[in-house]
Design brief:
The structure is a single chain. The chain is an alpha+beta fold. The protein has 4 helices and 8 strands; from the N terminus they run E-E-H-H-E-E-H-E-E-H-E-E. 17% of the residues lie in helices and 14% in strands. A two-stranded antiparallel ribbon has the order 1-2. It has a two-stranded antiparallel ribbon with strand order 3-4. A two-stranded antiparallel sheet has the order 5-6. A hairpin with a 2-residue loop joins strand 7 (219-221) and strand 8 (224-226). The longest helix is centred in the middle third of the chain and has 16 residues, at 84-99. The two termini are 43 Å apart.
């Protein structure tokens, strides 16, 4: 809880109650011990905080991938639409993960190719084998500029990784392909699930394989989504 704010907690005699305090220590704070008192009712308990002589960097060096639903939080608190309150919650959730040095599975929420259920906000043209990002705040570039490049976020430092495509099954050996893609229909007969080839794009779905290769080569450069790959026939959507 923030300093100066009072909260009421019901306690039961003879039972332990745990309290979790989140503290922010500025990088410029001198190393040493800091002591204060925590007031709980009529009891004043001394608390000592030790500050070490180094600062934790802003960058996250562990690429975690926390399975998390933004929608669950937004629905819980009945956050409407896409107005100021919506973005306040979304930004707060992203900052919470960053503050605790964790990466959610969807740092590009609400856009990118990490949306709920695996339906992305980026178009894929099968004929030219290129991706398009026409959706503004619901696309790739705007969320990536902030949450990956750090523009206006966390002292200019963004998350180190992001999920390129939402998984369909928690089993890595399971078929993760869409039911249909650019006219191709997936089949259990053309799926390889051996441990040595996991995760794999089946040779029975060459167009889907080429699309995933292009996706792996995605780079964000300024305001442009750069994708490279071979040409393929057909039309579809990732």
């Amino acid at each position: 809880m923030a300093a100066g704010k009072r909260r009421t907690v019901s306690l039961s005699a003879g039972e332990n109650t745990a309290f979790w305090f989140s503290l922010f220590v500025p990088k410029t704070a001198p190393a040493g011990d800091y002591t204060t008192n925590v007031q709980i009712g009529a009891i004043s308990a001394p608390v000592t905080l030790h500050v070490f002589d180094f600062a934790i960097p802003d960058e996250l060096h562990v690429k975690s991938q926390m399975n998390f639903s933004h929608n669950a939080v937004l629905d819980k608190y009945s956050v409407p639409g896409t107005g100021a309150e919506y973005w306040q919650y979304v930004d707060a959730m992203q900052q919470f993960f960053m503050d605790h040095r964790l990466t959610p599975k969807s740092p590009l929420w609400p856009g990118g190719v990490t949306s709920n259920g695996g339906a992305p906000f980026i178009d894929y043209d099968c004929a030219s084998q290129t991706f398009a990002d026409p959706y503004g705040i619901w696309g790739f570039e705007n969320p990536a500029e902030k949450n990956l490049n750090g523009s206006g976020f966390h002292n200019g430092v963004g998350f180190p990784s992001w999920m390129a495509a939402t998984f369909r099954n928690n089993d890595a050996a399971a078929d993760q392909r869409p039911d249909t893609f650019c006219g191709e229909v997936r089949s259990a007969a053309d799926w390889v699930a051996s441990a040595s080839t996991r995760p794999i794009t089946s040779a029975g779905s060459p167009i889907w394989k080429r699309a995933t290769i292009i996706l792996e080569r995605t780079e964000l450069s300024g305001q442009s989504l750069l994708l490279f790959g071979q040409r393929a026939a057909g039309s579809g959507r990732l």
